[in-house]
Amino acid sequence: MKVAIQGELGSNSHVAAMELLGEQEIVCCSVSKDVFASLSNGGADVAVLPIENSLHGSVAEHYDLLLAQDVVALAELRLHVHHALIVVPGMRMESIRKVLSHPVALSQCRRFFAKHPEMAATSFYDTAGSVKYLMEEKPAETAAIARTDAARIYGAEVLERGLEDDPLNVTRLFLLAARERAEEFRPNGAPDKMSAAFAVEHKPGSLVHVLQRLAALGVDLTRIESRPVPGRPWEYVFYVDLRFAKPEIADDVAEILQNECHMFKEIGRYVGAR
Prior knowledge:
- The structure is a single chain.
- By secondary structure, this protein is an alpha/beta fold.
- It has 3 domains: 2-80 and 169-185, Periplasmic binding protein-like II (D-Maltodextrin-Binding Protein, domain 2, 3-Layer(aba) Sandwich); 84-161, Periplasmic binding protein-like II (D-Maltodextrin-Binding Protein, domain 2), CATH 3.40.190.10; 193-270, ACT domain (Alpha-Beta Plaits, 2-Layer Sandwich).
- The chain has helices spanning 12-21, 32-40, 60-68, 103-107, 110-115, 127-137, 148-154, 182-185, 206-216, 249-260, and strands spanning 2-6, 25-29, 46-53, 57-58, 71-80, 84-87, 98-101, 120-123, 142-146, 157-161, 170-178, 193-199, 220-229, 232-243, 263-270.
- The strands form 3 sheets. Strands 1, 2, 3, 4, 5 and 11 form a 6-stranded mixed beta sheet that branches. A 5-stranded mixed beta sheet has the order 8-7-9-6-10.
- Strand 13 (220-229) and strand 14 form a beta hairpin.
- Helix 6 (127-137) packs parallel to helix 7 (148-154).
- The longest helix has 12 residues, at 249-260.
């Protein structure tokens, strides 16, 4: 199976892909839109993509892409994320003046940078990619922040572990497939969770009415977030996650959202992560 990820081997998405699917062929993509393109053009069978972090919040770009692209979420995973300071073997802590990593990872290590004002946090396209770059180019006075998996893969050295500000740093990721191939790769298990996007009319009580209909089904609304509609100022789409006791309730949810909303897209039904 070919699995597309945004980033390089040793990244959080790579580790998540292995937890979900075991050892598979990884298709590394520099940017997220290329992950979705690989699903549509057959370059990958499935993809693993982060959608939310317990410290940083939602990955807005990915939610926009989920709405725009014809893909289905087949499973979710909660991955504990731990950051390490990684260097070319032999580099000492006092020599470091620049630290490369993905902007989200850098923002999760603010206390480390407060302790080391001599080190400049510098954005890079990927955590593991920054380690790969270190080992290929060996830039002077430069380190990276990534998982220790990346250090192992690229032969780098770990100087310090546990750089994240909060040890309960968890990223939620989706396993995705193109809609027409979704059933080929759907994991076993009865779905008990649904992710969906919908938009309601601009009139008093329209959102409340929809939520009351869902509540009457006994559905647990575990998440709701609004995002602006590109090209349509001051119009918004609501993204929701819903848990239900019986798989067939998902059909009732879809019927309500289809009938009560002027736009509805089911992102996926899956077994919720515990």
